[in-house]
Amino acid sequence: MENIINEMAENLKGFQANIEAKLEETKSEIRVVRDEAQKQFDAQAAATKKAAKREVKHLDEVIIEKLDGKLDDMEKQMKSNGKFRIDLSDVKTMTLSASLTGDAQASYALNASILPSQAINFRDLVPTVRSESGLYVFYKETATTNNIAAQTEGSNKGENTYALSEVKVVNDYIAGFSTFSKQMARSLPFLSTTLPRMLTRDFYKAENSAFFSTVSAAATGSTTTAETIDLRQLVDYIGNQKTANFVSSVALVSPAQLGRLLKETITNGYYAGNGSVIVNPNGGMTIWGTPVIAASWVTDDKVLIMDNNFVERIEVEGMAIEFSYENASNFQQNMVTARIECYEDINLMQPTSAIYADLGNV
């Protein structure tokens, strides 16, 4: 019995020694891991200290500094209560430059800022008529002698003979297009509304230029005047229009020319109504009841006076904007074509109903 007890005691001693050896081995491994972690923290802290000093530090840099040399304390606290507290009371202020990598959250405008349109369009100043085909025909009265007069008893009455001539107007397309990719449309959602605005703006610029060039080139109204001052010349031109029994519906000038006219009213001491010139507070001007309108598409130093009873815009197809994949290789390349067009023309029915004159400044 005693031998058995002694044997058990020896076994316990061996087991205890084995346990102690295992514990010592585990402690050694923990120390190795701890020492290695401490080395890594120390190395990182040293690298941070060697870097250029900045007044504002990133949060990760502050944490590394706080852990420098305190791995033992962290280990003890983690074993005792499972927590380790890092005092970051001195890290109170965060700024974009210090705390944010990348860009701040942005807000995007719904529409792009595009270049301006022309303030007034030629089509706004004249009536529009519809044509069912691209060939528009009207009949124009030519010059005639009026023989209507008081009848002398027993004599023949005066006879008037009238002549009409056929005038054909061949309409044309004013058109253009723009091509863009589906990727662009997806990446810029505002494109679907902005591109039509830009196309419409540029369409009107082309239309205004074409209409002005056509009417000003065809105008043959009287430009007779002996005046050299712009305001007085306009009075004469409007008088010529009225003498020819046409209405002076509008006088079109460039913005620079309207500026000259306004300054002339100051230089010559004109007052409201003097010489039939009226200037309202916002710079609008009428001469002899005719509104003087500034349009950027009018050639500078010129004036175009029209009777809009004798000028018309002929429209076969109204202005339209269409989007299509069926253009050249659009379908294969994921491209989209936006087209704008209008089938129309401008018609000055009586050339003498419009006056186009040079005011002699430039």
CATH architecture of the largest domain: 2-Layer Sandwich
Query: How many separate domains?
Result: 2
CATH superfamily of the largest domain: Major capsid protein gp5
Structural class: alpha+beta
Low-confidence segments, ≥5 residues, pLDDT <50? none
Strand residue percentage: 15-25%
What is the number of strand segments? 12
Order of helices and strands: HHHHEEEEHHHEHEEEEEHEE
Overall pLDDT level: 86
- The general outline is elongated
Estimated radius of gyration: 45 Å
Q: Order of strands in the sheet with the most strands?
A: 6-7-8-5-9-12
Residues in helices, as a percent range:
25-40%
CATH class of the largest domain: Alpha Beta
Number of helices, where a helix is a run of at least 4 consecutive DSSP H or I residues: 9
* CATH topology term of the largest domain: Major capsid protein gp5 fold
Distance between the termini: 137 Å
Largest sheet: 6 strands, mixed
